């Protein structure tokens, strides 16, 4: 098992958790801002439309950020399915030029590395051999 790749996997996991968390915070902020602005103005149309837009944007950002957080948490536990989820997310992140593209290239380099695949297999085999605690 490569200690260096283990560190890279942990960095990738925390990048997913942090950026997913930022997405959730931005979604909550947009929800609050749009709803608050809609209720603050003295326009009946804005009172109706702005909270709807805020709700849709907020829920959308939370929904697209949740897989990032889930992938990050389970990458820290070396779950192979989380590796695949992070790879799928990275392909979408390639479109978020320039920061998302740079991070996605790094994530893909780490997660497609043979040492990383071996690390996940070893962790999975170790987990299978350990007795389950209840």
Written description of the protein model:
- With 134 residues, this protein is mostly helical.
- The protein has one domain.
- Helix content is 86%, strand content 0%.
Total beta strand runs: 0
Secondary-structure class: mainly alpha
The proportion of strand residues reads: under 5%
List the domain count as a whole number. 1
- The amount of helix comes to over 70%
Give the SSE string: HHHHH
Largest sheet: none
Tell me the quaternary state: single chain
Task: Compute the separation of the termini in Å.
Answer: 29 Å
Mean pLDDT over all positions: 91
Which residues sit in consecutive blocks of at least 5 with pLDDT less than 50? Answer: none
Task: Give the radius of gyration.
Answer: 19 Å
DSSP summary: helix tally: 5
| Coarse shape | elongated
Could you provide a short overview of the structure?
The protein has 134 residues and is an all-alpha fold. It has five helices and no strands. It has one domain (3-126).
């Amino acid at each position: 098992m490569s200690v260096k790749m283990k560190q890279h996997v942990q960095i990738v996991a925390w990048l997913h958790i942090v950026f997913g968390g930022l997405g959730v915070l931005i979604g909550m902020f947009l929800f609050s801002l749009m709803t608050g602005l809609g209720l603050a103005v003295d326009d009946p149309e804005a009172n109706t439309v702005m909270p709807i837009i805020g709700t849709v944007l907020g829920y959308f950002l939370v929904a697209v950020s949740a897989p990032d957080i889930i992938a990050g948490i389970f990458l820290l536990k070396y779950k192979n399915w989380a590796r695949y989820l992070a790879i799928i997310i990275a392909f979408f992140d390639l479109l978020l030029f320039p920061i998302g593209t740079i991070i996605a290239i790094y994530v893909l380099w780490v997660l497609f590395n043979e040492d990383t695949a071996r690390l996940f297999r070893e962790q999975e085999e170790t987990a299978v051999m350990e007795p389950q605690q209840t």
